[in-house]
From TrEMBL:
Pfam families: TMP-TENI. GO terms for biological process: thiamine biosynthetic process; thiamine diphosphate biosynthetic process. This is Thiamine-phosphate synthase. Mg(2+) binds at D62, D81. One of its GO terms (cellular component) is cytoplasm. Belongs to the thiamine-phosphate synthase family. It comes from Leptospira terpstrae serovar Hualin str. LT 11-33 = ATCC 700639. Condenses 4-methyl-5-(beta-hydroxyethyl)thiazole monophosphate (THZ-P) and 2-methyl-4-amino-5-hydroxymethyl pyrimidine pyrophosphate (HMP-PP) to form thiamine monophosphate (TMP). 2-[(2R,5Z)-2-carboxy-4-methylthiazol-5(2H)-ylidene]ethyl phosphate binds at T130, A131, T132, G161, V181, S182. GO terms for molecular function: magnesium ion binding; thiamine-phosphate diphosphorylase activity. Gene3D superfamilies: Aldolase class I. 4-amino-2-methyl-5-(diphosphooxymethyl)pyrimidine binds at Q29, L30, R31, E32, K33, N61, S100, K133. It catalyses: 4-methyl-5-(2-phosphooxyethyl)-thiazole + 4-amino-2-methyl-5-(diphosphooxymethyl)pyrimidine + H(+) = thiamine phosphate + diphosphate; 2-(2-carboxy-4-methylthiazol-5-yl)ethyl phosphate + 4-amino-2-methyl-5-(diphosphooxymethyl)pyrimidine + 2 H(+) = thiamine phosphate + CO2 + diphosphate; 2-[(2R,5Z)-2-carboxy-4-methylthiazol-5(2H)-ylidene]ethyl phosphate + 4-amino-2-methyl-5-(diphosphooxymethyl)pyrimidine + 2 H(+) = thiamine phosphate + CO2 + diphosphate.
């Protein structure tokens, strides 16, 4: 799950995270674009406390400093963030590090820089058009996702417009994992939605 507080219509973020953990979410990425560093750190520590009993890893979006200070499990990086190799150097070999790829050119650039990148996953973003992020490149679509699957053995996380009705097709196109934002954050019952998506993935 990727968090987005403005989309948490029915529960506060902490409760959404707790309910999704009860529903079987296997990783949470904390994304905070509008808050200051102090508030971000306090929130990260709180979310980490919620997830620890469930043994669910917490990733911090963009901010390596917040990751270190909060004792999070890793970071998710975009194309304009600190280079992933620097993140690996700072966080160490055990940290979970993922990188968003918005275009095929992003993938080619990654491989040219390091033919065997030490990344835990790459995120295809977005698979489908989404209202959550409006400043992204054109959607990859299922064909683009399948193309990337044929190019690499790095685990692929699909994000962008993922919901119950299209989850199976995304998995069949080659995704190893699904990252969900609004479908869980905006749900009246995040636990139920998480359980339903998990069943789709493991069907």
């Amino acid at each position: 799950m990727v968090t987005d507080r403005p989309l948490c219509f029915h529960h506060n973020l902490a409760e959404v995270v707790r309910l999704s953990a009860l529903g079987g979410v296997n990783l949470v990425q904390l994304r905070e674009k509008e808050t200051n560093s102090r508030q971000f750190l306090e929130l990260a520590k709180h979310i980490k406390e919620i997830l620890t009993p469930f043994q669910v890893p917490l990733l911090i979006n963009d901010r390596i400093d917040i990751c270190l200070a909060a004792g999070a499990d890793g970071v998710h990086l975009g194309q304009s963030d600190l280079p992933w190799m620097e993140a690996r150097r700072l966080l160490g070999s055990s940290a979970i590090i993922g990188l968003s790829l918005e275009t095929k050119e992003d993938y080619h650039s990654l491989i040219q820089t390091e033919p065997k990148p030490n990344l835990d996953y790459i995120a295809v973003s977005p698979v489908f058009d989404t209202a959550t992020k409006t400043n992204t490149k054109p959607a990859w679509g299922l064909e683009g996702l399948h193309w990337l699957r044929t190019q690499t053995t790095i685990p692929i996380v699909a994000i962008g417009g993922i919901k119950e009705s299209n989850a199976k097709s995304v998995i069949e196109a080659g995704a190893d994992s699904l990252a969900v934002v609004s479908a869980i954050c905006s749900a009246k019952d995040p636990k139920f939605v998480t359980e339903t998506l998990s069943k789709k993935f493991h069907a």
